[in-house]
């Protein structure tokens, strides 16, 4: 009798680090149901798309991929397609998916743990598509399985959801209200990862600075950092995102004090005009932001400060935009992600009348990038001919003779070296600094710190 072949799955992840971490859980869940990871689409019996709706372009990528998969599925009608993540939370997306008829299972951000059961339902073929999305989060479900992290770096959720309702942002609508994990669960997860060989963790939350609100123990993010910093065998701790409004001096001091915590704060400014910041509902002014920058630079030696910036928010005038350019010049971000404002149905800003035309948004994005890239390049050049501490993450995708890693300040460093150095902390001398990458070399015969 022919043995039943093992079923294979593939995951496709869009969006932010939260989604990457969720994909690890999704993979863990389907592996527990007996699936094994496939190495190609051809081999896969199940494809799970973990989607993002932060901007129109993110959704478009997913629709493009579904178009591709539709052709694929014609030859392979038994293949299941499941779609989860932030897009699944939105009514209009689910309506569209029903009409498209490609997706077999739709699950949301709050009920990942139900996926195996939903897949079984789809396999039974009674319903198509099987849709189960919760509008609100239930309690935090702990102890879900997760695919082992492949690399030396892993993401760890410390909280879920967001209460900030920045007027442009869909995330509070797709991820629900803010909930913090119990510190014991976080510490246990990090310890488990270290046992599996992970050297660096990134603590994740939409606003890690508000960690602990609602927990019984009176504990905040600064306290949590100090606790994680005690874990032996862990080389580095990163965290993202830090909302400037909640960035306390206590936290800045903790970052400075904790030896494993990297000197990098991602504190998105978003815009440099107080009028626009207010319309965005960000809860701080440029003056307050500049005070924070001074405080961080005075307290945390060598700190890198990075940002997200949006151009073309409704009502943004040329003068407002120039104020953003001026702030970028004043702060001198080590790097920044820059975006054109994208109206999201259901958010307050989407209903504002004075939408900025696409051509103007494009032009502003180019001007902003020109200024920001120049600053990033200059900051990187300061490191030329200096030794920097690099945690080696892996071999370069394009050249197996080369390794890639990051500095504590989150700069990517590429240098020649053998595979045996992956996972090591090294001193690398920077030889050439470009806008996004440093090229370096190992000092002869030495360099290994650990
Ligand atoms: N919680 C994080 C990240 C949220 S999404 C934070 O507060 O920083 C990541 C970034 O996407 C945001 O910082 C913002 O710059 C950008 N973004 C969010 N909604 C957007 C929209 N509608 N249009 C353009 N950019 C957006
Ligand atoms: Fe969106 Fe603002 Fe929450 Fe970040 S803090 S996820 S930008 S609402
Ligand atoms: Fe996208 Fe959802 Fe993250 S909208 S940015 S995947 S929280």
Rg, rounded, reads: 23 Å
* Helix count, DSSP H or I runs of 4 or more residues: 12
* Low-pLDDT ranges: none
Distance between the termini: 54 Å
Q: Which strand-content bin applies to the residues?
A: 15-25%
Question: How many distinct domains?
Answer: 3
According to CATH, the fold-level topology of the largest domain is pyruvate-formate lyase- activating enzyme
Judging by the overall fold, what is the CATH architecture of the largest domain? Answer: Alpha-Beta Horseshoe
Give the names of the bound compounds: S-adenosyl-L-homocysteine, iron/sulfur cluster, FE3-S4 cluster
State the major sheet: 6 strands, parallel
Number of strands: 19
CATH superfamily of the largest domain: tm_1862 like domain
Structural class call reads alpha/beta
> What is the helix content?
25-40%
Average the pLDDT over all residues and give the rounded result.
95
Major beta sheet, strand line-up: 2-1-3-4-5-6
Shape: globular
Q: What is this structure, in a nutshell?
A:
This protein is an alpha/beta fold and 450 residues long.
Question: What are the main properties of this structure?
Answer:
450 residues; alpha/beta; Rossmann fold; pyruvate-formate lyase- activating enzyme; 12 helices; 33% helix; 21% strand; globular; binds S-adenosyl-L-homocysteine; binds iron/sulfur cluster; binds FE3-S4 cluster
């Amino acid at each position: 009798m022919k043995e039943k072949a093992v079923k294979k799955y593939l995951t496709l992840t869009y969006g932010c680090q939260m989604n990457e971490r969720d994909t690890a859980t999704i993979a863990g869940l389907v592996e527990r149901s007996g699936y094994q990871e496939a190495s190609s689409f051809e081999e896969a019996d199940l494809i799970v798309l973990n989607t993002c709706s932060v901007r129109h372009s993110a959704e478009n990528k997913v629709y493009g991929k579904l178009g591709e998969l539709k052709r694929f599925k014609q030859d392979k009608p038994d293949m299941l397609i499941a779609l989860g993540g932030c897009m699944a939370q939105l009514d209009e997306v689910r309506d569209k998916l029903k009409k498209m008829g490609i997706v077999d299972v739709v699950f949301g951000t709050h009920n990942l743990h139900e996926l195996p059961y939903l897949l079984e339902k789809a396999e039974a073929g009674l319903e198509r598509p099987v849709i189960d999305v919760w509008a609100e989060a239930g309690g935090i479900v702990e102890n879900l399985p997760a695919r082992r992290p492949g690399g030396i770096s892993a993401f760890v959720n410390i909280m879920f959801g967001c209460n900030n309702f920045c007027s442009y942002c869909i995330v509070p609508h797709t991820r629900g209200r803010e909930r913090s994990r119990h510190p014991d669960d976080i510490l246990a997860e990090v310890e488990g990862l270290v046992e599996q060989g992970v050297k660096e963790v990134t603590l994740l939350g939409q606003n890690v600075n508000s960690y602990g609100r609602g927990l019984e123990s009176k504990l905040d993010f600064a306290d949590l950092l100090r606790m994680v910093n005690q874990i032996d065998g862990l080389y580095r701790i990163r965290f993202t995102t830090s909302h400037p409004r909640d960035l306390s001096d206590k936290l800045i001091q903790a970052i400075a004090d904790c030896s494993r915590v990297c000197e990098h704060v991602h504190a998105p400014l978003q815009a440099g005009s107080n009028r626009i910041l207010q319309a965005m509902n960000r809860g701080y002014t440029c003056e307050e932001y500049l005070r924070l920058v001074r405080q961080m630079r005075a307290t945390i030696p060598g700190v890198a400060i990075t940002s997200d910036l949006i151009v073309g928010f409704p009502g943004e005038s040329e003068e407002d935009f120039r104020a953003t350019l001026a702030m970028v010049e004043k702060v001198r971000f080590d790097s920044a992600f820059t975006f054109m404002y994208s109206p999201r149905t259901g958010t307050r800003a989407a209903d504002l009348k004075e939408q900025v035309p696409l051509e103007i948004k494009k032009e502003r994005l180019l001007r902003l990038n020109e200024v920001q890239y120049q600053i990033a390049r200059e900051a990187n050049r300061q490191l030329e001919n200096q030794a920097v501490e690099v945690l080696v993450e892996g071999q370069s995708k394009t050249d197996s003779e080369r390794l890639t890693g990051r500095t504590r300040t989150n700069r990517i460093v590429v240098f020649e070296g053998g595979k045996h150095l992956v996972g090591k902390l090294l001193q690398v001398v920077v030889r050439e600094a470009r806008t996004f990458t440093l090229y370096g070399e190992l000092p002869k015969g030495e360099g290994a710190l650990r």
